[in-house]
Amino acid sequence: MTKKTNTKQWIALAAMSLGVFMGLLDVTVVNVALPTMVKDFHTTFTNLQWVLNAYTLVYAVTLLIMSKLGDMYGRKKIFLGSLVLFVLASAVNGMASSLLILDIGRGVQAIGGAGMMSLSMALVASNFDGRDRGLALGILGSVIGVSSASGPLIGGYLVEHFSWPAIFYVNVPVGIIAVILTVIYVNETPSYGKNQKIDLWGMLLSAAGLFAIIYGLIVKESNPHLSWINIDVSGYLIGGVLILVGFVIAEMHVTDPMVNIKMFKKPHFIGTIIVAFALGAGIYSYNTFLTALMQNYIGYSAIQTGIRQLTISSWSLILGPIVGILSARYSKKWMISISLFLGGIGFLMMAHVISPTVSFAELWPGMVLMGITNGMVNPLLNTTGMEGVIPSEMGMASGLLNVFRQLGTTVGVVGLGLIQDTQYETYLNGHLGSINMPAAALTGLKKALIEAGPFSGHGIAFSTRVQQSDFAQEFQRVVVNAYDKGMSAVALTAALVVIIGGIGATLLLKNHVESTEIPIKED
């Protein structure tokens, strides 16, 4: 029999949701603060990249480690420690007087974010049972979806009204509330590995492998003209893959492994990983390009962009609880598959309408389908990923889903960016030469456009100096068309990614997986 869910459990869910919201919001919220940071730190956008990259890199690298520690020593303890670490690092970041302090603070903050994110699903699953577990995981999924898409809106408001430190300081009062609620209301899980040895080699190898791969992708993203075979890129990528191969071999021969490799022999679990990767590589990575389109080319401010992107993020709030209830009655496999196919249609619609005169009125139908996909799949992925997993491995299962979702986002941003760059440069090379303009001006502007990339091309084309030239209109038309070619290719590729994810879900996910009872330890 399942126990009736009480008020204490729903308050516990609120505590965990606050932690997840802060942790994921800080992946994207910094983007809109970069222009203000450039002025305050008297530096360049290039130097500020590590404010973003430090969080992304450390977050992805520590997800599995924090998951394993939670499984071994109690998920509430590690979640709570991660929450406190995140709040303290946020305060330090807000007071940072130099970029070095801010970069280090962002790395420490990411460790806390990884702990909160990796253990939240397993904690929710262990604090609820029966149908209420599906509803609770659905609500948590809606929080994940909203937090990932809310960065431009929340960050834009805070920066505009309070300057950039506010994006970090706001975590302090919210975090303190989450700490208090967690201490009082969240039930601890058993310490499944209290008699086991810590798999230090597994932790080191997994961290080193993920670090090398993600750092290699970051290098490629920052230097799109570097060849894939350049040692600065391929060295990290190949090295990372080899280290992870060594990690898998080592885990097969360890008595108490960090990751139970047998999990990857289950087609159902492989299906959830494919869906998580597709969600990151398709939906989340595309948000970066959509934000640039709306701000840099259409001309919306950060807040105006964030408000319009509620067309995507609001569906997570609406659908999360509903999906949690429906998942107990209908096939999660087909709900996930159909949702991903809808997302593919949405991307195809956006690819079709992108033009020099595109507006939000033309984009919103595709954005709605994109939002429905995110709002449906995220909660379902949480529930589906926990099915058939034994209680002692639920934290690791949650960590793996989050690693592949984050890895998908990183791969997507790099991959879609390279596709956009290629289409953009191809169009420029084929059309700039037809403009009646001085050869020296053509050479200089073409070099500037390619070095700046598609995101910044609009600023060059519509600069005061170009506006005063005789060839301004024709030059601007070529630049905008080049950007549109790249954006259309990005949308088409994102469509392909989520459709492949839908096919993977159709082929690998099971209609029903026997659930595993999870003991709840009362405080």
TrEMBL record:
Coiled coil: none
GO molecular function: transmembrane transporter activity
Main location: membrane
Membrane topology listed for this record: Multi-pass membrane protein
SUPFAM superfamilies reported in the protein's UniProt record: MFS general substrate transporter (SSF103473)
Transmembrane segments: 12-36, 48-66, 78-102, 108-128, 135-154, 166-186, 198-218, 233-255, 267-286, 306-327, 334-354, 489-509
Keywords tagged on the record: Cell membrane, Membrane, Transmembrane, Transmembrane helix, Transport
Localization annotation: Cell membrane
InterPro entries per the UniProt record, alphabetical: EmrB-like, MFS, MFS_dom, MFS_trans_sf
All copies of domain Major facilitator superfamily (MFS) profile, residue ranges: 12-513
Keyword Transmembrane in annotation: yes
Record has Heme as a keyword: no
GO CC terms in record: plasma membrane
NCBIfam families recorded: efflux_EmrB
Family: Belongs to the major facilitator superfamily. EmrB family.
Name by which UniProt lists this protein: Drug resistance transporter, EmrB/QacA subfamily
